[in-house]
Amino acid sequence: MQYVVFFLSIFMCIGAGTAYAGTNVPYVVDTNTIALYHFDEATLGVTPDAVGNHPGTLNGNAAISAGGKFGNGLLLDGSGDFVRLGNVHQDPVKITWQGTVEAWVKLSSALPPTFAVLASGREYGGYWDDGWFLGRWATTGSPNLSFMIWKEGFGMQVADSGIAASELVGGWHHLAGTWGPAGVQVWVDGVLKNTNFNYTSGLPNPGYQTALVGAESNGNCTPGMIDEVRISDIQRSFQALRLPSAVLLLLLDD
Would you call 145 exposed, middle or buried from its count of C-beta atoms within 10 A (0-12, 13-18, 19+)? Predict the structure, then answer.
């Protein structure tokens, strides 16, 4: 009689605020979700918010199209296309001292020097950002995807992923930025790529005019597809947790 021992490593998502980005199903609303956009449909240019408070308005040539990460997605040509969400931290009022913005993104090959996947600040064309920015900002001198919080008087508080944006072209990737007590963080495909510990405060302007998908107020847009945009009032973690290995004994006949 022989015993064969197998060790099974189990990965799970544990705890409030933990959400593994490798999931193969769309997000559902939880207690920390402020706004959630599946981009499966639009009626008269308006796409619903799964939470129900802040529907998004499609602008330019932005369109709901087949080929999203989960069903349909938001198709953008990178030239004046975006979705306006309004201030998702108002009506009702939500905390801003910590938070997370995230999306599934499939970038096209024609990336401009500066592009924004998700941003908050003034209206499109207002030439002023005073909140979050997830994308690439040319004036930082880095070719990489970054997440930053812009605060007047303190400038850009940047977390640089170390991953060139060009390396993310052509496939679906989960991108996320968080802010709060842990600092300013940037995540790519469930991996924490960098933390800026110099800024642990909240959004500089809770009364920002609007959040934008696929652009920022200076007019820098993102070409490609975006799906499953979620904004939360908690500093989420996307790291898969490894539980202690389970032992499986198989009894084999000689």
Answer: buried
Contact 83, 57 (CB under 8 A): yes
> What pLDDT was estimated at residue 26?
93
Sign of the CA dihedral running 7, 189, 20, 239:
positive
Query: Which pair of structure tokens corresponds to residue 73?
Result: 């997605």
Instruction: Check residue 139 and give its pLDDT.
Output: 85
Q: What is the pLDDT of residue 242?
A: 37
SS3 126: coil
What domains lie within the chain, and their CATH numbers? 33-236 (2.60.120.200)
Give the C-alpha separation, 240 to 67, whole Å. Answer: 27
Question: Residue 14 phi/psi, 5° resolution?
Answer: -130, 140
d(CA 157, CA 148): 5
* Residue in the structure block whose two tokens are 């945009």: 229
Regions of the chain short of the pLDDT cut 70:
1-23, 152, 154, 240-254
β-pair type (73-77, 223-232): antiparallel
Distance CA 69, CA 122 (A): 29
- At 121, give phi and psi (nearest 5°): 155, -135
Joined together, the tokens standing for residue 67 give 């080929």
CA distance 66 to 121: 30
Rg (the chain; Cα; Å): 20
Query: Which amino acid is present at 114?
Result: T
**What is each CA distance from 177 to 91, 184, 187, 221, 246, in whole angstroms?**
23, 7, 6, 18, 33
- C-alpha 100/C-alpha 108 separation (Å) is 24
Task: Report the candidate in 27, 19, 16, 24 with the shortest Cα–Cα distance to residue 240.
Answer: 19
**CA 221, chain centre distance (Å):** 15
